[in-house]
């Protein structure tokens, strides 16, 4: 079992460090995290492999959606964006465009954190996607996207 786990970890590390795109790098990191989580939860080879597969998929999706530049712009929209006004940008590397319309900040009663919702319209590879996201301030005051 330990040999299988170490092989997955080594291959994932090599994969994530040698790949050029954000999505592939995210996939490698996701595979490692998923394998560790699968092993911790299931304590078996099957759980480790399932965790690695799920982690790879999720890491690829997250890595492909937005790179560092886009995440910085999104954070800027949450931090300084005027409620109800659209902030737009074009990623110079990918050509993807984004429009973010933040809403007024509010206090989340469950988590006791300051949160803010936003409508995001992204044009990625010519396809328009519309989504709604929520970000809340963490204990250090940074905006963190919340799982919906």
Sum this structure up briefly:
With 148 residues, the chain is an alpha+beta fold. The protein has four helices and six strands.
Model description:
- The protein has 148 residues and is an alpha+beta fold.
- It folds into two domains: 2-65, no CATH class; 68-145, no CATH class.
- The protein has helices spanning 2-18, 22-42, 45-65, 68-80, and strands spanning 87-90, 97-102, 106-107, 114-124, 127-137, 143-145.
- Strands 1, 2, 3, 4, 5 and 6 form a six-stranded antiparallel β-sheet that branches.
Task: Pick out its properties.
flat, alpha+beta, 2 domains, 148 residues, disordered N terminus, 49% helix
Contiguous low-pLDDT stretches (5 residues minimum) are 1-26
Tally of individual domains: 2
Number of strands: 6
For the largest beta-sheet, the strand count, sense and barrel status come to:
6 strands, antiparallel
- Coarse morphology: flat
H/I helix tally: 4
Instruction: Report the radius of gyration as a whole number of Å.
Output: 18 Å
The helix-strand sequence is HHHHEEEEEE
Q: Can you give the mean pLDDT?
A: 73
* Beta-strand fraction estimate: 25-35%
Which percent bin holds the helix content?
40-55%
Distance between the termini: 35 Å
How does the helix and strand content classify structurally? alpha+beta
